[in-house]
Structures are given as C-alpha cells and as structure tokens.
Specification:
Layout: H1 8-31, H2 37-59, H3 70-100, H4 106-109, H5 117-147, H6 152-166, H7 175-191, H8 195-214
Helix pairs in contact: 1-2, 1-5, 2-5, 3-8, 5-6, 5-8, 6-7, 7-8
Length: 215
C-alpha cells in the first residue's frame, strides 16, 4: 500500500476527536452511573464512525485514502472471509493442542458479558459490528495509514500497541487483541483494502463472544 495515505492534518484531527469522545464517555458514565454503559459505548462508536468519515472526506482525500471504495469492496470482503476461515482452522488446531496439554484455552479468550438480555444484545451489536468498523477505520485506515511512511514494522507496532491499550485489560496477556491486531494490520497492508480487516474483525469478534456466551 502507499506509504503516505494519511496526511498530518486528518490524522491529528481524528486523534483529537477520538480522545475527546472517549474522555467524554468516561466522564458521562462517572457523572451518571445509572446510564447503561453498553448504550453509551454504542453511541460513542457510531459517532466515531461518522466523525472519521467526515474528517477523511473533508481533509484526507476521500474514502479511498483509508481503503474504502466500491471497487475494492468485493475483493476485500472475499479476502476477509478467506482469511477468517484460515485463521479459524489455525485457532481450532491451537485449541486442540492446548486441551491435550492440559490447558483450558477458553480461559485465554473469555470475554466478560453483561447478564441482562437487552444489554447483552446491545453488547453483541456493538462488539460484532459497530465497534469493529469504528476501530478499523481509525487504527488501520487512519493511524496505520499515517504511520506507514516510517515503515511497516514501526506502523504495526505503534498502531497495535494503542489498539491493545484501548481495550479493557484484565491483568492477563491480551492474546486476542495482540493476535487480532497483527492479523488485521497484515490483511490491510497487502492490498490496502479496509473491507478485509473489517470483515476479519467482525467474524473474529462474533466467534470470540459466542465462545464466551457458551463457555
């Protein structure tokens, strides 16, 4: 992919917008603890998607700068599904190996889920669709696209470090976030199609949350 897709201005505005929205969400939940956290999170992610689209369209050279065009949609979708199937087979093999070794792999990937049915539904919609779209637009399309001018390794390490830190950490090694971030980045790097990592992210989160639901 091109090494200068995202210029300083759209990156800086996007980064400040992300910080402002996330800080606003934290303040809102601390000031009004009775608010459903999942509803607030869904609202934040939808706002982020709309704002990032607006910033890229206005100052970033259009949606093509983050790898989103009608021309790239089908090929990115097909590649995302293919990568997901391959990754699923590898994950199943790894799970089988860990089970044989006496290690419970489900503990490594288990995600805490809300108990109220309505909040669980909002969690799944946000975590398997809206969240992946917002995160991939920023972390791959904007952040990685900006850092890419300094090389693949630099862009991969910094963008994925911030990607991991954005997620709640439970004290254990965040294996799903680390592995997922690397896979998403490589999928984006090869062709520059954002649809590919978005698809992998959506399918991966769906599998991860489903395992947690039945675990």
């Amino acid at each position: 992919m091109e090494t200068n897709r995202i210029a300083v201005k759209p990156f800086a505005i996007s980064f400040m917008a992300l910080i402002a929205l996330e800080s606003g969400g934290i303040f809102l939940l601390s000031a009004f603890p009775e608010l459903p956290s999942m509803d607030v999170l869904m609202g934040l992610r939808i706002m982020e998607i709309l704002i990032f689209f607006g910033i890229v369209s206005t100052w970033g050279g259009g949606m093509a700068s983050v790898g989103l065009t009608r021309k790239l949609f089908r090929s990115g979708l097909a590649r995302g599904i293919t990568w997901s199937l391959i990754f699923g087979v590898v994950a199943a093999g790894t799970f089988a190996f860990l089970i044989i070794a006496g290690i419970n792999p489900f503990k490594l990937v288990r995600v805490p889920l809300p108990e109220p049915p309505l909040q669980l539904l909002v969690f799944f919609i946000t975590g398997t669709l809206i969240g992946p779209m917002a995160e991939e637009i920023f972390f791959r399309g904007i952040l990685y696209g900006f850092l890419r001018r300094w090389g693949i390794l630099t862009a991969l390490v910094i963008s994925n470090l911030l990607f991991v830190l954005m997620h709640p950490l439970s004290g254990t090694i965040p294996v799903p976030q680390i592995v997922g971030g690397i896979v998403f980045t490589l999928a984006y790097e090869i062709k520059g199609e954002l649809t590919a990592p978005v698809t992998i992210h959506i399918l991966g989160n769906t599998a991860l949350f489903s395992l947690s639901l039945f675990n």
